[in-house]
Amino acid sequence: MSDRQATPQYRRIADELLAAIRSGKLASGLRLPSERELSAEFGVSRMTARGALKALVEQGVIASVEARGYFVTTNRIDQRLQTLTSFTEEVRRTGRRPSSVVLAARRMDASGEVAAELGIAAGSEVYHLLRLRQADGVPVALEGAHVPADLAPGLLDAADFASASLYATLKRVYGILPVEAENTFEASAAGASDAAILDLAAGAPVLRMTRRSLAADGRAIEFVQSVYRGDRFTMRVRLAPGSTDA
Ligand code: GLP
């Protein structure tokens, strides 16, 4: 079967629209053609056209505005926090290409803070991987991960982290996968060095994030400190009903 046959029709239309959005032909805030216009333009049913629009809404690339149609959203990455996904997966989900610049990759003794977060003795060996994370080549986050060395021996040589995913490597090479995590968020202003790396003005808004992820056996597998560009991300959380008691 050729690729063309394997890709559903609605997805091919969604990909064409996505390319137009990414190239700036369909700029942020613009209205997309309606279901009717799309079905005429591509010679498909309205249901297929609707499927393409729905897929792009799912990806966070366009939004539907009641009675007005579909609009290109801002240039933000819509990151969903209800699942334990990696940066690579989140960026791909929104139709962008993830990459990293490895700023540091070294074995070191865990500081008191890192050791406490990882539940290991201070001074135990950890791998420190500091990456500038990019989407379509644009710097969007700075991410410093600490992984206990005994959990993933040889981690830093196990993959080229300029392109490889940490989660995918932990899974593929060591059979480890995060099953639980705690994330914290703090609004902040970029300091001079973070700003320079992230291509921001000093003082620009950023989101500081930490994540401590656990494996199925309860051991911490990473403690990550990240600085996300405030203008590039929307963090989305789906909430379950809570108690109505005050
Ligand atoms: C997200 C998480 C990090 C995690 C990273 C892995 O950014 N906040 O805690 O380390 O994903 O990303 P990847 O697997 O793409 O290297």
Explain this structure.
- This protein has 246 residues and is α+β, with helices and mostly antiparallel strands.
- The protein has two domains: 70 residues, Winged helix-like DNA-binding domain superfamily/Winged helix DNA-binding domain (Arc Repressor Mutant, subunit A, Orthogonal Bundle), CATH 1.10.10.10; 153 residues, Chorismate lyase.
- The chain is built from nine helices and ten strands.
- Strand 5 and strand 6 form a beta hairpin.
- Helix 3 packs across helix 4.
- The mean pLDDT is 92.
- Bound molecules: 2-amino-2-deoxy-6-O-phosphono-alpha-D-glucopyranose.
- 2-amino-2-deoxy-6-O-phosphono-alpha-D-glucopyranose (GLP) binds next to helix 5, strand 6, helix 8 and strand 9.
Question: What tags apply to this protein structure?
Answer:
246 residues; Chorismate lyase; alpha+beta; six-stranded antiparallel beta sheet; 2 domains; 9 helices; Arc Repressor Mutant, subunit A; 10 strands; elongated
- Return the CATH class of the largest domain: Alpha Beta
Tell me the strand percentage band. Answer: 25-35%
Q: Supply the CATH architecture of the largest domain.
A: 3-Layer(aba) Sandwich
Please name the fourth-level CATH homologous superfamily of the largest domain. Answer: Chorismate lyase-like
Query: What overall form do the CA principal axes indicate?
Result: elongated
What is the strand tally?
A: 10
Mean pLDDT figure? 92
Q: Can you tell me the number of structural domains?
A: 2
Q: SSE order, as H and E?
A: HHHHEEEHEHEEHHEHEEE
Q: How many H/I helical runs?
A: 9
Radius of gyration: 21 Å
User: Spans with pLDDT under 50 lasting ≥5 residues?
Assistant: none
Q: Would you tell me which CATH topology of the largest domain applies?
A: Chorismate lyase
List the ligand species.
Answer: 2-amino-2-deoxy-6-O-phosphono-alpha-D-glucopyranose
